[in-house]
Amino acid sequence: MDPVQMAMMDGTDLRVGPLAxxxxxxxDCCGHLPPAGTVAGLSLCTTCLPAFALDExxxxxxxxxxxxxxxxxxxxxxxxxxxxAVSAKHETTLWxxxxxxxxxxxxxxxxxxxxxxxxxxxxxxxxxxSRLRAAARALPRRPDHALSGIRCLTVGSWFAKSPARPISxxxxxxxx
Length: 176
Description:
Layout: H1 3-7, E1 37-39, E2 42-44, H2 49-52, E3 63-67, H3 73-89, H4 101-114, H5 117-124, H6 132-138, E4 150-154
Helix pairs in contact: 3-4
Organism: Gluconobacter japonicus
Protein name: Amidophosphoribosyltransferase
């Protein structure tokens, strides 16, 4: 499953829900981290959740659409997690300005990925996940593989340490 396939699922609510008692030990998308919530029946980790939670409030604050046909969504999520881990190891973030060594290398990879928003905008007319459903439907009928390179790049942190839904009923978003 990829974000475009999810966007084309008419009538499906693409909001984050709680994990089932029988949730798998690893994310259904990346297979790397433990799941933190579900979207449309998929058990997803905090890195993969934003790629599929297209109907979630303020989803555009934490993720952007990019054109990245070399990676499936799970591989891209694992790469972003690795880049964040490099930064965390050095007690910095991918959004810091004054970097050197490994964190600078991680930031450069991340910045290269962010530049892939431009091809997504050329193809879809947007890089906002909240608009992916409308954008995908507005395109002329194309072969199934025509949009298979659209991915969601997590550009902010969504859950801090816990994915628990706050009392207000909306997800707390932390951009760093």
